[in-house]
Fold this protein.
Amino acid sequence: MIREIITDKNMLELNPHGDYGFPFYLINVTLSAYQFGRFNCHWHPELEIACILEGTMTYQVNQNHYHLVKGDCLFVNSNALHSGCMYEKNDCRYIVSTFNPSLVYGYEKSAIDTNYTFPMLNTDNFSSCVFHEGTKANATFQAVMKEMAAYYTDRPVCHELHIKSRLCELWAVLYEEFRQKESSAGAGLSEAKQISRLKNAIIFIHSNYNEPITLDEMAESCHTSKSEFCRIFKKTLHQTPFEYLLRYRIQKSLSLLVSDTCTITEIANQVGFSGSSYYSEVFRKYMHCSPREYKKNTIK
């Protein structure tokens, strides 16, 4: 079964992250379960922690790109734009958990919130951090993530309390890392502005992918010049705006192919291609088969 990050038009992830009673979610994921071996850019107010169990991957958080290998652990802050993909076509298996920070601070303006969570959640300079294997912090993250995974899967009595206590343990490690990085605060404002512009451009692409889109229109959507827009896009996502657009159009066409209600030409037009020949050419580039072959192999 193909996994998918479901988002709204603003790229806010709509997949559940636990529930009101216990806002915590954890899953063991294989990257190849996603189409193209990648999950698209999205964000969510919950915090995210990932621990690599096997393989390697590239993880992008705002303008930071991490090459993660077995044992590495990554923290993604609230509302940070992030995506992930295979590194040199190698698969990756990892644990990822998302949680509401209220599990750490309890209630707003508590001493824990005021001193330790609010400063980290409301900064432009700590969108993410990685803990590589061989460090004390990494050893703590690996051990705690595996403990939380066991509690979450087995659901013994008091598993919620055990998970909450482990999150507080991790937060103490994260806060120490945050304190050490506070001195570089000057660069954060510029990055935050660029990421905001990038979000606007991606929202524009997602909303208009089925129409002809020009580079001028994409740049205008984030109120910047074409050259600056292309620079920010390539630097952050490691692909050109048109490469992203074409990949997104192909992704949106897959469900139409499987539904078996439209011809190849109709599908090409519905997702923004000028004709079936060009659609088939781009489809083969990204999917390594023709639309008809994909349809036949998926429906059988």
Notes: The domain at 24-187 is CATH 2.60.120.280 (Jelly Rolls).
